Amino acid sequence: MKSCWFAFPSWHLVTTLFAVTAVAVTAQSSPASATMTPVDVDAGGTEQVAIGACGPRIRKPWELLLPLEKDIYLRAIARSMDDGYYIKFVEIHTEQMTTMEAHETCMFLYWHRLLLLGFENMLRSYGGEFSCITVPYWNYVDDNERYLTGQCRSMEDCSQILRDLGGSESGYEQTVTINGTPIGGTCVATSPLDHFCEASHLHGDQCRRCVPRGAWESTPFPPTTSVSSLARQLFATPTIAGVVANLEAGIHDTVHSALSGAMGFLEAPADPIFFSHHASIDLLHSIYYKCVVGNTVPIPLQQKLLDPRVYTNCPRRTPLQANVLDRNVLLPESSVLLRSGEDGVNPTSVFEQQNVLDPFFAALPSEYLSFSDVRDMGDFSYNYQMTGLLADLFTTCAGANVLSGAAGVGVPFRHLGTASNGSEASHGFVEAVIAPSEHSTGGWYSEALAAATNATAVESTTTDTSSNSLEAMEDVEKMTCVFYDECRGGVHDFSDGFRRNFHTTRSSPCSTILANIKSGRDRIRTPDWRPIFLRHMTCDSS
Length: 542
What we know:
Elements: H1 11-20, E1 57-59, H2 67-83, H3 86-94, H4 96-102, H5 108-124, H6 140-148, H7 155-158, H8 160-164, E2 171-178, E3 181-188, E4 211-213, H9 227-235, H10 240-259, H11 273-293, H12 301-305, E5 314-315, E6 329-330, E7 339-340, E8 348-349, H13 358-361, E9 382-386, H14 388-396, H15 421-426, E10 433-434, H16 443-459, H17 465-487, H18 496-501, H19 509-519, H20 530-536
Parallel strand pairs: 1-9, 9-10
Antiparallel strand pairs: 2-3, 3-4, 5-6, 7-8
Helix pairs in contact: 5-11, 9-10, 9-17, 10-11, 11-14, 16-17, 16-20, 17-19
């Protein structure tokens, strides 16, 4: 990812200029309508549920949804495929100007946050039993824990959501041209994929009604989904720009690459798992925000704009065509660019009334500065139900201590022992929900981190505890990568095809770590770490 180097001399000047200048492309301006217009559908005999009666938007892990909730979600996706709305989200993600803003920039997280909300609004607009839908997230952190400890053998074997969304074996080898791009794989036609139409101009029997997938039943979990890697991705850097770069190069890219099929292309939204994958990344940012920013009362906007943990600015990969203040730079005040158009031809903004997706985006904020805190977005505030290792990470903020010297302007770090959820509720925040877990997991990580902390302290020539903590955290990730390499079938780098599809040249994090260790450029500082892992796991190669 390119570094975010652009800075204005005065944010007061920027705010004033934005008040009188049209910053975004004219086509990106929101229409006057302030309410979401539901899709005109026949609710049939289903129970009519008013959106206002849904309560807070709480996204849940797939495995904690009731069978009826899963069925409702999948039927809503099927209806949106039939009605032609679903394919428009594929068009958004592949439109040239849009994807250049959505990926490899400092706004990666906030851009996808808006996309998910628009998708949720679209599904909710069917009314009745669909009125309270939230996108379920994929808890691949706990799934990977089962993989690491030998309880399951592949991504599909370990993840209920992959199996419930049709898996990868019930199909046939086929190449499908999705929005103009040929994509091969096992074309799975279980519901709701048997409703998928690969282009806006196709209808009914003209559609292939299947989605290409990779060999999920034999694909190992990428190491970036382990708690040891996530701690580094979330807490090794004191700025939002660093976290965005770590998550995109880490868990985002490696999961897309591992799943392959449609998920290995920018046409990834063709597969419903895309939305659950990005809901998980969105959840991870909410953990970072809680642990690193940690405010229990609202932060004034001007203060957020000055806080590098919340906002930054960075160069655009492609300049806007209009001669506006943010033509070459993405700012918090910039309008979010989301455009759809079949094959990228004559794209229009989702905030334009002639775009069929406008009813689902019209009431949503259209500027990045509205998307920093999921708890504090007005009528569209939301949060997550967390369980297992994610709940542990959220409640303990293990690893965030490495940033203890990096607090932002005017916003102290949360004192976790005394923070009051009641304070958050009193200010109208939508709070996270912690679900009890029957499984005690992650013991290997705690033991390995303690050993790494001791080893780092012995070797260290500095008294900087945050620096030592970071080195210990990074050491455990190195151990995890080597364990994968020696005991879980190896570490897999990105293919040339994936790099080409996602316009990147980098390698996966563990591939880089292993290359550095094998070349002697780096090492694991903790002696005798392997017995720690083997107390909790078995080695497939032993």
